[in-house]
Amino acid sequence: MQSSMAGSEDDNHHLIRSDDRQHPANLIPELCRKFWSLGWVTGTGGGTSIRDDDLVYLAPSGVQKELMKSEDIYVLELSKQVDPKKRVYLRSPPSLKPSQCTPLFIAAFTKRGAGCCIHTHSQWAVLVTLLLENQPANKTLFEINNIEQIKGFGKGYQKQGALGYHDTLRIPVIENTPFEEDLTESLEAAMDMYPDTYAVLVRRHGVYVWGETVHKAKTQAESLDYLFQLAVEMRKLGLPWLSDIA
Amino acid sequence: MQSSMAGSEDDNHHLIRSDDRQHPANLIPELCRKFWSLGWVTGTGGGTSIRDDDLVYLAPSGVQKELMKSEDIYVLELSKQVDPKKRVYLRSPPSLKPSQCTPLFIAAFTKRGAGCCIHTHSQWAVLVTLLLENQPANKTLFEINNIEQIKGFGKGYQKQGALGYHDTLRIPVIENTPFEEDLTESLEAAMDMYPDTYAVLVRRHGVYVWGETVHKAKTQAESLDYLFQLAVEMRKLGLPWLSDIA
Amino acid sequence: MQSSMAGSEDDNHHLIRSDDRQHPANLIPELCRKFWSLGWVTGTGGGTSIRDDDLVYLAPSGVQKELMKSEDIYVLELSKQVDPKKRVYLRSPPSLKPSQCTPLFIAAFTKRGAGCCIHTHSQWAVLVTLLLENQPANKTLFEINNIEQIKGFGKGYQKQGALGYHDTLRIPVIENTPFEEDLTESLEAAMDMYPDTYAVLVRRHGVYVWGETVHKAKTQAESLDYLFQLAVEMRKLGLPWLSDIA
Amino acid sequence: MQSSMAGSEDDNHHLIRSDDRQHPANLIPELCRKFWSLGWVTGTGGGTSIRDDDLVYLAPSGVQKELMKSEDIYVLELSKQVDPKKRVYLRSPPSLKPSQCTPLFIAAFTKRGAGCCIHTHSQWAVLVTLLLENQPANKTLFEINNIEQIKGFGKGYQKQGALGYHDTLRIPVIENTPFEEDLTESLEAAMDMYPDTYAVLVRRHGVYVWGETVHKAKTQAESLDYLFQLAVEMRKLGLPWLSDIA
Fold first, then answer.
1. Which SUPFAM superfamilies match (chains A, B, C, D) (predicted)?
2. Most C-beta atoms within 10 A of its C-beta, which of A244, B208, C190, C214?
């Protein structure tokens, strides 16, 4: 049995071992199984991270997300990440690699106080960025209004309450880069320009969605994917994303 | 363990504790898991309520529907709801909020004697309301005929039997409002104008479907979603929703 | 406990009680759960029947197919059905109704020696019949060729082997009738006109598929649904169903 | 009980009996269940093979893939296959037939050192080959670039690392033949012409995808199916598969 080895102090196995289903090391694999069945993390794409106070739990790179186990989770201390080039992990699973999404997740945690950040490769997200790219103006902002599901989003950073039915949901789009960590700067710039957004689309790539809690990040990710799919279907049917309903 | 607390008389825990899978407090979570997998209650959207004689069981607001538990269920007595502004609950789960759909569910129970009412945010329902909005006339009525699945609906309130193949299924559409409870008046007006309907579409929002029993409400909701999806695909293929087949 | 009653000789409960997963009374509910998840038997639509020598097992009318149990199964003796107007059942579950599909299933068993017949309301099947209805000629025959999945069909009644890649699969379409049992005559006529077909489409309704065994009926139903879906997508993309590849 | 017979040395039952979930005879059925739910192996179509050193494990022909068991697996020794016309099996399940895909799987193992090869009938793959067939030039190569999911592929045979975001993924298309084993020659020719490809599309049929390991073959198959689906949706929306982004 490997368990005595695996449970040694060396790899800080205790950080990811818990009988509590709500423990981040148990929640991340459960979420990833769900996301795989939704087509969000196909073929090792996408990822998920949960922050619990100063501890950050991260899905690794390159694993089949529907098969992920608690043992595969990376852990780091947010306050100890002084140099983005030298990431320090409390726990690194042997024979795995940390996710390239790590600096992007950390941006959501440090700049927005997020408790969870979800990255999907949802085709609906990608198609929305392609449709925006193809139109003459305003290529870097997805806008939709007057759809009930918009209420699934909070008003914004450190604000109370949810968006209203007539509010326009605005999700900024950043351009993709060959290396995922190079997205960090433009993701942070998008957060600065749209301080109340809970998501950033990445052109031809997917979307990052976050929230104060796992519950909020996950339900906002679902609501957003719903709106992306609806937007693509609306386009097929010649229906506009914005409308003037008072 | 919280169970002794949770089982105390104070919160009327006995109302939602049963070993019977058919008990409303067990059925609602099971239905919601199914509805989540169908895309009907994405991101905390939608809801479900079951009436058992004078007791009404309600899914709460803002929960992840596929994770709902019996403990999350609200209970009220239908005959005791004298003032819609002052809802009185027999059981209110701590740290949850009652659903904004409550007055709409109650309308189905009181005006139509329904035993179950289901509210979905199905994209097919939303797309049908958008397609209707975009056409010159008759924007407030979805009509389809000569499709076998139409037989999945009862003839109407206090009538025996099901619709026939050649009958036209008519589902009224009401306009959405910023606050869901404000839909009550127009929902009730639609019930009055179309007394035999078992469903009302809400523009850019979703649909309310009911039935005398859980079985009928659920199978009518499925049949309706099937017809909405079919109608959207028919539109993509240039096929009309109404036809003259004798 | 009801089990002693339910197991009495009166209702021939022994006919549907078996520990063998391959027993028709266990297989039909398992198949129906699968078909429900495929969208084939939404809202009590569709049905399935298995013949074991002279005994025919039938799903009842009006049940939620994903919740069906062995106890819900009807049983009749094929050789004893002298008068189609007076169906004689060996076993009739209390408080259920026999399926209106029964005479159609029996036609597959008696005219084609089928061991299993599946009836779906698949939207792809319905859309194919609508697309055919809308075209100038040949409205009553679905034809497709040069698709590998066509090999999923046998060559025909009492013939050895499967269709080839270049063979044209032909599925006749009959017109729907208000009462499902009234389809029997035209279904039998279609069987006579296309003696090698394993399926008949019903306009605006769905499809009947059969096979010598459960395995063949089920895999042919899957292959056919695959081809219907492919045909609809081909139409959306302007691709023809028939092509000249030698 | 058949188990003593089934476990006899005669049929080399020990080759497919293991408590290890990672054993090929356990993995293949698990993968096939997953592939069935993805629509890749509908109606007995498609197949999967895993190579462990010199032993090759193969799903049989004509079975319902979601119901496959370890007992159904064929085993052969790769180094002993001198004559493709006379396949020698270490283990042949009684009353099953070997897959016609066998020579194609073997090509991936011998010519590319693959550890796993997956064959799907995915409709997205078929539609991509139909769309290519219908265009004036370059009918035998699927090309897409500037989509993040392209990183899900290795650079090629005996090369380190993955494709980059700006790289163009190229998948050759071969013409289908009436007998699947007759595809072998053109599949091998496509491998020679595109030595770095991990997949070959078969017109009007599906796709073969492989990888050094089960993990790589499976995640590449998922990434490819994602891209095929995206490509079909892009075509519906008038979006080109290739773009000039620097």
1. AraD/HMP-PK domain-like
2. B208
φ, ψ for residue D226 (rounded to 5)? -55, -45
Supply the Cα-derived Rg of chain B in whole angstroms: 18
Task: Supply the DSSP symbol for B153.
Answer: S
Give the pLDDT band (50/70/90) at residue D3.
very low
Separation between Cα atoms, residue A83 and residue A78, nearest integer Å: 11
**In this structure, are B4 and B87 located in the same domain?**
yes
Total domains present in chain D: 2
A116 marked as part of a ligand binding site:
no
Which of D42, D65, D99 corresponds to the end of one domain? D99
Residues D166 and D65 both lie in one domain: no
What range defines the domain where residue A217 resides?
103-246
- Residue C1 and residue C95 in one domain: yes
Same domain (yes/no): D48, D118 = no
- Cβ pair B45, A152 in contact under 8 A: yes
Instruction: Verify that B72 and B4 share a domain, yes or no.
Output: yes
Looking at the DSSP bridge assignments, the partners of residue B74 are B58
| The predicted structure's pLDDT at residue D11 | 78
With a CB-CB cutoff of 8 Å, which residues 10-49 of chain D face chain A?
none
Q: Are residues D235 and D114 in the same domain?
A: yes
Tokens 């819609």 -> residue? B84
Buried b (16+ CB within 10 A) or exposed e, A19-39: eeeebbbbbbbebbebbbebb
Considering only CB atoms, which chain A residues are within 8 Å of B206? 148
Question: Would the annotation count D23 as a binding residue?
Answer: no
Q: Is C156 left (phi over 0), alpha (psi -120 to 50) or beta?
A: left
Is residue D222 domain-shared with residue D114, that is, in the same domain? Answer: yes
In total, the C-beta contacts within 8 angstroms joining chain C to chain D are 68
CB contacts under 8 A, C 109-128 vs B, are 121, 123, 126-127
Tell me the pLDDT band of B136, cut-offs 50, 70 and 90. confident
Residues 6+ apart with CB under 8 A from B158: B113
Please state the length of chain B: 246
Q: Taking a C-beta distance cutoff of 8 angstroms, is the pair B97, A205 a contact? A: no
**Do C56 and C81 belong together in one domain?**
yes
The CATH number of residue B8's host domain is: 3.40.225.10
Helix axes C24-37, C214-236, angle to 10 degrees: 10
Q: pLDDT: is B245 or C69 the higher one?
A: C69
Residues of D in contact with C149 (CB under 8 A): 42-43, 45, 121
Torsion of CA D169, D175, D177, D181, to 10 degrees: -30
D219 at interface of A, judged by CB pairs closer than 8 A: yes
* Span B129-145, average pLDDT: 92
Mutation for A interface: D122, D219, D239, D242, most A CBs within 10 A: D219
Nearest to A112 by CA among A202, A29, A217, A224: A217
Decide: D117 and D46 in contact? Cβ < 8 Å: no
DSSP string of D150-214, one letter each residue: GGGSBSSTT--SB--TTSEEEEEEE---SSGGGGHHHHHHHHHHSTT-SEEEETTTEEEEEESSH
What does the pLDDT average to over C37-52?
97
Confidence check on the interface: ipTM exceeds 0.85, yes or no? yes
Mean pLDDT rounded to a whole number for chain B? 94
Interface test with A, best of B40, B44, B176 (most A CBs within 10 A): B44
pLDDT of residue C82: 85
The catalytic site residues of A sit at 148
Last residue of a domain, one of A81, A99, A117: A99
Q: A239 — contact with chain D (CB < 8 Å)?
A: no
Q: Do B130 and A215 touch (CB under 8 A)?
A: no
